[in-house]
Design a protein that fits this description.
With 139 residues, this protein is mainly β. It has one domain: Jelly Rolls (Sandwich), CATH 2.60.120. It has a 6-stranded mixed β-sheet with strand order 1-3-5-9-10-7, with no helix packed on it. A 5-stranded mixed β-sheet has the order 2-4-6-8-11, with no helix packed on it. The radius of gyration is 17 Å and the shape is globular.
Length: 139
């Protein structure tokens, strides 16, 4: 543990001297959600959300989108995950289709389905990468 801390502090010192940013993927918060609920704003910055331990499909309510929020959601149990934007917010799908205001997206009920969402503006989430077939889950 002590060596890891020293290494981390050394990297931070080197980074400060070099004047460059650490790689964007060097730290990621993993959040386990085995049942339906909400994600708060603090949980959607450089985070990965899984349904590990779920015994059925779950629905997660997203916080109000703002620029810079980004999260990846992956199925780690063989059940669907639905992501519901706040109120009438929009999730823009790839292609560049846009779902109707307030429509959620739903994963297939299989392992390994992932979606990365990025807050690109007030009230707008963009799907920037998708594994598996995520569908329009309606309002």
């Amino acid at each position: 543990m002590r060596r890891v801390l020293v290494l981390l502090l050394s990297l931070l010192a080197f980074d400060a001297l070099a004047g460059s940013a650490l790689p964007t993927n060097w730290l990621q918060l993993v959040i386990v959600k085995p049942s339906s609920g909400s994600l708060n704003a603090g949980e959607v910055y450089r985070s990965m959300v899984t349904n590990t331990g779920a015994g059925a499909g779950i629905e997660l309510e997203l916080p109000a989108a703002s620029v810079g929020m980004n999260l990846e959601v992956c199925t780690n149990a063989p059940f669907a995950i639905s992501l519901d934007p706040a109120g009438a917010e929009v999730i823009t799908a790839q292609a560049p289709a846009t779902l109707a205001s307030g429509d959620k997206i739903t994963s297939p009920g299989s392992l390994g389905a992932c979606v990365r969402l990025v807050g690109v503006g007030a009230g707008t989430w963009a799907m920037v990468s998708v594994t598996g077939t995520w569908t329009d889950g309606g309002p």
